[in-house]
Specification:
Chains A, B: This is ROK family protein. 2 copies of one chain form a homodimer. With 316 residues, chain A is of the alpha/beta class. Chain A has 8 helices and 13 strands.
Amino acid sequence: MKEVALGIDIGGTNTVFGCIDSEGNCLVTGSLPTQKHEAIEDYLDELFVEVESAMNGSADKMQIIGVGIGAPNASFYSGTIENAANLRWKGSIPLADLVKKRIDVPVIITNDANAAAMGEKVFGAAKGMNNFIVITLGTGLGSGIVVNGDLLYGHDGFAGEVGHMIVRASGRECGCGRKGCLETYVSATGVKRTVYKLLARHMGDSELRDVPFSRLTAKMVAEAAGRGDLVAKETFTYTARMLGEVLANVVAVTSPQAIFLFGGLTKAGDILFNPVAETLEKQLLSIYKGKIKILASGIEDDAAVLGAASLIWNKR
Amino acid sequence: MKEVALGIDIGGTNTVFGCIDSEGNCLVTGSLPTQKHEAIEDYLDELFVEVESAMNGSADKMQIIGVGIGAPNASFYSGTIENAANLRWKGSIPLADLVKKRIDVPVIITNDANAAAMGEKVFGAAKGMNNFIVITLGTGLGSGIVVNGDLLYGHDGFAGEVGHMIVRASGRECGCGRKGCLETYVSATGVKRTVYKLLARHMGDSELRDVPFSRLTAKMVAEAAGRGDLVAKETFTYTARMLGEVLANVVAVTSPQAIFLFGGLTKAGDILFNPVAETLEKQLLSIYKGKIKILASGIEDDAAVLGAASLIWNKR
């Protein structure tokens, strides 16, 4: 009988789960559409049928010792999902309690950036680190902050909203209803917006002039930069410098050992990482200079599920 | 025999000490000039002669169970003072070890803002709070951040430099060698600088036009504001709004229950506190709105010594 943690990542489109052993091996995995059921109870029923069926189909005999869940708007303290804009279940959903009714083991829920940070600590490149930050760069910008070896939740469970630090007064409109939030600049969406700003400002040729806003992706911008497109290159420099500047301020608050960049946008590689590291180093208060590493995530596959499962393994 | 913690506050001019019981009563107190001795050993010899003499002069029989020290550039992890600009002892001073040679009890050292934060938790208005921030407003701006009930030190012991978050790119010159740090705006010195900026910008009468920069104090500005001086009033509004803006970003990182304002500048009262609270509330991300209190420190007398002693009592 092998002990495993069940990791569940609830995304806006799909839910992915996996049974993860203490070494970070994913023994079985599976998925289902998140939005099929109007009632959370029906969704969970189907999810646990899938989990059982996946486990029965495996040669390994497993025992689930805990369930870790990454979900949007997840509240760690209350075990609830709170008014998630991109899920069908409205209001406050007592997710942890509902899961515990189906399997009586410890259930921990948190948001995806916190799960990513814990995944990095338990299974990834942050092993042995007790003070670090993970910045997730996807459609938006998430952050998971580890201090004294534990996730920083703060008083109400919602610490780590670095993406909503205001970095430009009266700046770009943000989905949160305010202006100038970091994620309006530093994210896949932010990259698109910067491309259009630069296309408006400059006269020079760019292959990006042929792409409508609605079809443009950060990946296309990264590829154009790789081919030497000046607007695309300047876009990444601008994005990275903005991130480096803000990280210098976050360092002044939390003094981490390293900052990990994680998510789709990081596939851009050096054109993102190098100017982030350079700007950070230049902007840092002297007592921090030369001490803070900018690193790539050490988790490749099944990152979301590993992160969710790590919430359980970190407590063992 | 009454158990006490010896609290020591090492300031640039004076060193103050006190024997503090578990209730926060200061049983004996004393002081000596910090800069009299060139050698740290001679300074500590005199300090402990003073402590012993003060204790012998008291009717209470006391036993020191630990020594807490607040000092500039103090490193919690190494127990050292590192290159303090305003002390005579240069380089790295192994303060905790030197104290332990004289009295073999636990010795904890930290900077004065961290000591103030712990003092608030153990003896002040933050009793029972596990996630809060103390902002000390003196010549500069210090910060002590408590998360999960403990001081946030970060990887190297130097977390909590909110005063050195850069808030205006290419802004005011800071003593740290960079530009635009929060403490160049929000501190007693920042208030002076803002007065002069406003006197340059505006044409109107102000009693502050008669005071040279070198003689101007934040207290004079607060008093002028109390008499209705427009430049003085606008100075406090500007200062408070800048602080409120930055605190909204700090909240997005750490999600505290409350933020305490501490130190000389807070004597200005409502003209400081009200616009800080209003600006913070306006700038906060919606999930934090209505949740974060801006409060005055609950410690009146002997704050520095109580803070230093609280480092010991918090661990009991």
